[in-house]
Amino acid sequence: MNEDVQILPLVLLACSGAYLAYEINRRRNKLRKVFNTFDKDESKIAEALEALIQSGQLRPYVLE
Fold it and tell me: Where are the domains of the chain?
């Protein structure tokens, strides 16, 4: 009976670890979809933003 009681925490730990791995993978894939899809239109937007930064009209975001 003692062995059954010790198995439950291990099963719960394994389930929570599996969920954590799933959630991290899901969020990473979501970020990849957002940031790794530069088509021609998006690359033009990125170029325009770079030009605004270089001209001084827009400042890059800096963590402090």
Answer: 2-55
User: Running DSSP on this structure, what letter comes out for residue 36?
Assistant: S
Would you state the pLDDT for residue 41?
67
Question: CA torsion sign, 3 to 6 to 8 to 14?
Answer: negative
Residue with tokens 């033009």: 44
Which SS3 state, helix, strand or coil, does residue 56 take?
coil
Walk along the chain (64 residues) and give the pLDDT tens digit of each residue.
Answer: 555 568 888 899 999 999 999 999 999 988 887 776 666 666 788 888 889 989 989 887 777 7
Residue pair 61/53 in contact by the 8 Å Cβ criterion = no
**Closest alpha carbon to 38 in 26, 27, 50:** 50
